[in-house]
UniProtKB/TrEMBL annotation:
Pfam families, per the entry: Acyltransferase
UniProtKB keywords: Acyltransferase, Transferase
SUPFAM superfamilies to which the protein is assigned, alphabetical: Glycerol-3-phosphate (1)-acyltransferase (SSF69593)
Protein name per the record: 1-acyl-sn-glycerol-3-phosphate acyltransferase
Domain Phospholipid/glycerol acyltransferase: 94-236
Organism for this UniProt entry: Acinetobacter boissieri
GO molecular function: acyltransferase activity
InterPro entries for the chain: Plipid/glycerol_acylTrfase (IPR002123)
Origin: domain of life: Bacteria
Amino acid sequence: MLMQTKKSSLFKKVTRGITIGSVFTGNTLLHSSSILALGLTKLVKPSPKIDETNVNIANNWLTINNWLIDHVLPETQWDIRIDPNLDLQLDGRYIMTCNHQSWVDTTVNQYFGRPRMPLTRFFTKWELIFIPLVGQAFKILGFPMMKRHTKSQIAKNPELKHRDIMEARKSCEQLLSQPFTLLNYVEGTRFTAEKHAKQKSPYKHLLKAKAGGLALAIHILGKKVDSLVDMTIVYPDGVPDYSEFWLGEVPRIVVHLRKIDIPQWILEGNYEEDRQFRAQFYQWLSQIWHEKDALIDEIKTQYQCKTAP
């Protein structure tokens, strides 16, 4: 009897995985190829209408993914907490910071944002552009793509650093023609215990914050955004990988959002040229990160750490 139950459970798991994987892959290929096709027409005749249509296609892709989450993954309980001072609108302009633990984070970002905020773009690695269809769709949709150079490469060719900044600046400025949410994973990489130990991070649940990308976004967009939003994602039962999420093996996800006021001195400063400003900016960001670390600790305590319901 026990063996039959295990076989039945395994069959359901495999069937669900195949079904979700097929729908998700088909949905992604259909919408990304449509975005790519429309994007190529801009080479002949640029038009804001094409950009608007591509955003609508991307939003439709997310709507289908979110439908899957709501109807095929009912076991996952969402605990969404929004600061009452934070007024989110679909036609708004937002810069958003978030902690980063798993590839699931991007799905959580989009699941939360689709009915509440404009399409979320995020700083990503330039290498993703070589992923067929998806990478090119990211570029067409205005995701800022960063080429990460080593210190030795920059030392040999200092122009590499300025070129990267100029590309990021151009991507940010292009967002101003439409509503947007620009997400920055401030830690720069996914959290792991190994990275945490290697960094000697001063935080319990976070890696050290990297200020450059956020400072650049605020410098270019800060005076024109409606809010700086800080999102905190917590998986009370352990950080999942992507397959675990889509197989319905993530019991609970907590999403907390709050509004962060941008001081006037930050809007007027120059991160690249002013060493004192860089130090002050990093101190300001570190305080936000200490508050986030305490919040994660509080949420984990509320959920009794990793005890499943």
